[in-house]
């Protein structure tokens, strides 16, 4: 018998209960220790029906372990898991994995080779033969594979098999879908198509999705919310736009793109650099800061007889660099500069084709509204 989340029944007025929808999935203060290391360290999050949250973080940060605890194949040392407000697992009470209404999709999905597509999809379904057939047909139509209903998996392409694995996981109408790098075995173009298609089917079915990935592009493409994980903890959580544009620290910026970092010392709430002054309010005098800017937010100007553009309020002062390397990347060009002021390398991304010759001097400025200032850590 499932138990209610105490927060939903204790200390909340009737009105508050009506106006606060129940999350489809809620995990609270999950912890898992292996040896002397907290691999998952006080992780909490909620996901509403039809929403996708991506657990994004580097290899080994504890993403899969979190997923495995929610699925019920790994026991947490402490913390609770609720599905639709009902407790499914704490340290004494535990609903077995098969009764949690949770679907799983992993990279190494395996279809049953001796079963037809229809039988594969119907595998976890209950009900009459007709009911099962109706559900199988409905889902196969949704992913454009109705024509393959009587085929065996080996005649299908990798992408088609992936779609079948998805609908098999979705067939029993799981309330939650846990996905662990499910698209990493696919080539790029196919992956984009299948990602988008998967997302639309999951949303149509109102499933709450927790997707684990170490690829920022995948998280940005799929997620309503990104939970950035590092060393077992969720360090930042929010809509992709906010995580990208208001990152927590230098490491969070560099997780999404290349970065340029300029170190300086704050004095009187200002930090002086070769690119002019940056406002560093609240930073103690003498404390070091990193000014961090993504390569696409550097502005380039031509050299005019050894001089660059005049300083402005929005872009500060220009610093000169000499082109070290320029590469065309498809939609944009990546230009690397060796900076005159200290010989360091800075990277700029320019739309379309911009391939100046090696040795060309250019002037770089940093847009004040597109850079981040963090206390220096290393
Ligand atoms: N059963 C286990 N016993 C001991 N250590 C484990 C066990 N399972 C996982 N770990 C360790 O816990 C850490 C986190 O593993 P986890 O698989 O959760 O990371 P991850 O973020 O999903 O990484 P990846 O993206 O590489 O899959 C790793 O250092 C891993 O070696």
TrEMBL record:
Spans annotated as Disordered: 1-22
Residue stretches making up the ABC transporter domain: 25-256
Protein name: Iron(III) transport system ATP-binding protein
GO terms assigned for molecular function: ABC-type ferric iron transporter activity; ATP binding; ATP hydrolysis activity
Gene3D superfamilies named among the record's database cross-references: P-loop containing nucleotide triphosphate hydrolases (3.40.50.300)
CDD domains: ABC_Carb_Solutes_like
UniProtKB keywords: ATP-binding, Cell membrane, Ion transport, Iron, Iron transport, Membrane, Nucleotide-binding, Transport
PANTHER family from the UniProt entry: SPERMIDINE/PUTRESCINE IMPORT ATP-BINDING PROTEIN POTA, SPERMIDINE_PUTRESCINE IMPORT ATP-BINDING PROTEIN POTA
InterPro entries tied to this protein: AAA+_ATPase (IPR003593), ABC_SmlMolc_Importer (IPR050093), ABC_transporter-like_ATP-bd (IPR003439), ABC_transporter-like_CS (IPR017871), ABC_transpr_FbpC (IPR015853), Mo/tungstate-bd_C_term_dom (IPR008995), P-loop_NTPase (IPR027417), Transp-assoc_OB_typ2 (IPR013611)
GO cellular component terms, A-Z: ATP-binding cassette (ABC) transporter complex
GO biological process: quaternary ammonium group transport
Keyword Iron-sulfur: no
């Amino acid at each position: 018998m499932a138990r209610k989340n105490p927060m939903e029944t204790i200390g909340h007025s009737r009105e508050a209960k009506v106006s606060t929808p129940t999350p489809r999935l809620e995990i609270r203060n999950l912890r898992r220790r292996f040896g002397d290391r907290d691999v998952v360290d006080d992780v909490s999050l909620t996901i509403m029906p039809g929403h996708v949250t991506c657990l994004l973080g580097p290899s080994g940060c504890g993403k899969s372990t979190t997923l495995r605890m929610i699925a019920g194949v790994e026991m947490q040392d402490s913390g609770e898991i609720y599905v639709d407000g009902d407790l499914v697992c704490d340290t004494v009470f535990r609903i077995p994995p098969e009764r949690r209404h949770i679907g799983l999709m992993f990279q190494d999905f395996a279809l049953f080779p001796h079963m037809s597509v229809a039988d594969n999809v119907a595998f976890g379904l209950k009900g009459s033969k007709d009911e099962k057939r109706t559900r199988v047909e409905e889902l196969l139509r949704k992913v454009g594979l109705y024509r393959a209903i009587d085929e065996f998996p080996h005649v299908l392409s990798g992408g088609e098999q992936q779609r079948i694995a998805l609908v098999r996981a979705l067939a029993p109408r799981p309330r939650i879908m846990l996905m662990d790098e499910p698209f990493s075995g696919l080539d790029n173009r196919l992956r984009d198509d299948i990602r988008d298609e998967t997302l639309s089917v999951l949303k149509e079915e109102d499933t709450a999705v927790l997707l684990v990935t170490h690829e920022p592009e995948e998280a940005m493409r799929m997620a309503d919310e990104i939970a950035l994980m590092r060393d077992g903890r969720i360090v930042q959580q929010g809509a992709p736009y906010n995580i990208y544009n208001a990152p927590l620290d230098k490491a969070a910026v560099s997780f999404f793109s290349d970065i340029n970092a300029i170190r300086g010392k704050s004095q009187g709430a200002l930090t002086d650099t070769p690119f002019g002054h940056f406002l560093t309010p609240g930073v103690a005098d003498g404390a070091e800061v990193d000014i961090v800017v993504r390569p696409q937010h550097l502005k380039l100007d031509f050299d005019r007889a050894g001089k660059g553009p005049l300083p402005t309020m929005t872009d500060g002062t220009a610093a000169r660099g000499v082109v070290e390397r320029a590469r065309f990347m498809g939609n944009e060009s990546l230009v690397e500069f060796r900076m005159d002021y200290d010989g360091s390398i800075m990277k700029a991304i320019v739309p379309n084709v911009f391939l100046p010759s090696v040795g060309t001097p250019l002037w770089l400025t940093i847009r004040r509204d597109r850079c981040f200032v963090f206390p220096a850590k290393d």
